[in-house]
Design goal:
Elements (H helix, E strand, L loop, with lengths): L1 E6 L2 H11 L6 E6 L2 H4 L12 H11 L3 E4 L2 H5 L2 H7 L4 E2 L7 H4 L1 H11 L6 E4 L2 H11 L3 E5 L8 E4 L2 H13 L4 E4 L6 E9 L3 E3 L4 E2 L2 E3 L3 E4 L4 E4 L8 H19 L5 E11 L2 E8 L6 H8 L4 H9 L15 E8 L16 H5 L4 E5 L2 E3 L5 E3 L3 E9 L2 H13 L14 H4 L15
Helix pairs in contact: 1-11, 3-5, 7-10, 8-9
Keywords: ATP-binding, Ligase, Nucleotide-binding, Purine biosynthesis
GO molecular function: phosphoribosylamine-glycine ligase activity
EC number: 6.3.4.13
Length: about 425
């Protein structure tokens, strides 16, 4: 099987790495890829958001499967164009990707499917926003309705700051979704879907804020780990039966079947499991940790989803080890990241036992050296017998990498490794 992976980031590097480990996969290509991906597979300088260009490349390469990584190509209709050309594609249609592209649309689907989520209001101007903020009270949760690469959400005790974020979205021509605040720890669960059948992956937890202790602004994600030994027993089955399957069924009923990954961002609250948000693709950096533990060949799974044959798949096999991914970000991320700096120590870091490096915002400079090219530069992923060992290995690895102004969190998976995460009582139930 020949596979083309679309996207430039760490998630795509993780997917490429897993595909290369699948005996049924003979060849992998990436577009546009990054410096790390280019070290292991051919890359193609194609605009990932251009449906015609991606389709033309897939036809030229005569691939058997196209895997679309990021949200922007999905919202641009890349998977629709590839599908219309008769090539199997793992990634939802533009209409189905509205589950991520529009928070308001996702809320509508959840309401119709009976999926438990936070109460919310859509606001289109400052007066409506103020009314909604006062109705729910602090902490205030304000979300840009459209795609914002994981950075369109503000959670704050400061009413003025919440209003200012809403106003910035209105000024840019958008609307906002204002929600009640959800207490309890957060969980990311990826669910593969072929439009009818769903198969869950291993739950993970990611770290959105830039600084230790969950301080500072939101980012696309600064690290992740899996498995979650503290999660309530039966959580995955509950999420599949109460959240993922009803959502996939509702999308099919509307004539817009969801084929790809439904990313369920969850809060385990005192009133039960609630959906914070849906994404229409693998999350980054959770994918880097989750796929590091997946033993079932990935290519066959994704092709089965693309062809509507997930019901033929057996239960997934997982490594007993724990995985921790720590993201190295550029100076001044998530504002205006500094780029173009040389990255040193990658070979030394990759030689640490249990460690591999997944590139995100990287490129080769004029001298052929790996340099930073984005906000989140790379992830150091480590496997270990338990979270503590995986953490030690990941931090040993990232400590060997040199990037001027580089920054990373030092507390990824720390609380979980110490057994300090508590789930509010009754949170194991997805019911009201």
């Amino acid at each position: 099987m020949k596979v083309l992976v679309i996207g430039p980031g760490g998630r795509e590097h993780a997917i490429v790495r897993s595909l290369l480990a699948d005996p049924a996969v003979s060849e992998v290509h990436a577009a546009p890829g990054n410096a790390g991906i280019a070290q292991v597979v051919p890359t193609h300088a194609v605009n990932a958001n251009d449906p015609a260009a991606v389709t033309e490349l897939a036809q030229k390469l005569e691939v058997d499967l196209v895997v679309v990584g990021p949200e922007a190509p999905l919202a641009a209709g890349v998977s629709d164009a590839v599908r219309e050309a008769g090539i199997p594609v793992f990634g939802p249609s533009r209409e189905a990707a509205q589950l991520e592209a529009s928070k308001a649309f996702a809320k509508q689907i959840m309401a119709e499917a009976g999926v438990p989520t936070a109460m919310a209001r859509v606001a289109a101007n400052a007066d409506e926003a103020a009314d909604a903020l006062d109705a729910f009270g602090a902490p205030y949760v304000v979300k840009d309705d459209g795609l914002a690469a994981g950075k369109g959400v503000v959670v704050t005790e400061d009413r003025e700051a919440a209003l200012a974020h809403a106003q910035a979205c209105f000024t840019a021509g958008g609307t906002v979704v204002i929600e009640e605040y959800l207490d309890g720890p957060e969980v990311s669960l990826f669910v593969l879907s072929d439009g009818k059948t769903v198969i869950p992956l291993s739950p993970a937890q990611d770290f959105k804020r830039i600084y230790d202790g969950d301080r500072g602004p939101n980012t696309g994600g600064m690290g992740a780990y899996t498995p979650l030994d503290w999660a309530p027993e039966g959580l995955v089955d509950e999420v599949v039966s109460r959240i993922a399957q009803p959502t996939v069924d509702e999308m099919a009923k509307r004539g817009t079947p969801f084929v790809g990954v439904l990313y369920c961002g969850l809060a385990l609250t005192s009133r039960g499991t609630r959906v914070i948000e849906f994404n229409a693709r693998f999350g980054d950096p959770e994918t880097q940790a989750v796929l590091a533990r997946l033993k079932t060949p990935l290519g066959g799974l994704l092709l089965a989803a693309a062809k509507g044959r997930l019901d033929e798949e057996r239960e997934l096999r997982w490594s007993r080890e724990a995985a921790v991914a720590v993201v190295l970000a550029s100076e001044n991320y998530p504002d205006t990241p500094r780029t173009g700096d040389r990255i040193r120590g990658l070979k030394k870091a990759g030689a640490v036992e249990g460690v591999h490096i997944l590139h995100a915002g990287t490129k080769l400079d004029d001298d052929g050296n790996v340099a930073s090219a984005g906000g989140r530069v790379l992830a150091v992923v480590a496997l270990g017998e338990d979270l503590q060992e995986a953490r030690e290995r990941a931090y040993e690895g990232i400590g060997l990498i040199r990037l001027d102004g580089g920054q990373y969190r030092t507390d990824i998976a720390a609380k979980a490794a110490r057994g300090e995460i508590t789930v509010p009582e009754r949170a194991g139930k997805a019911g009201v």
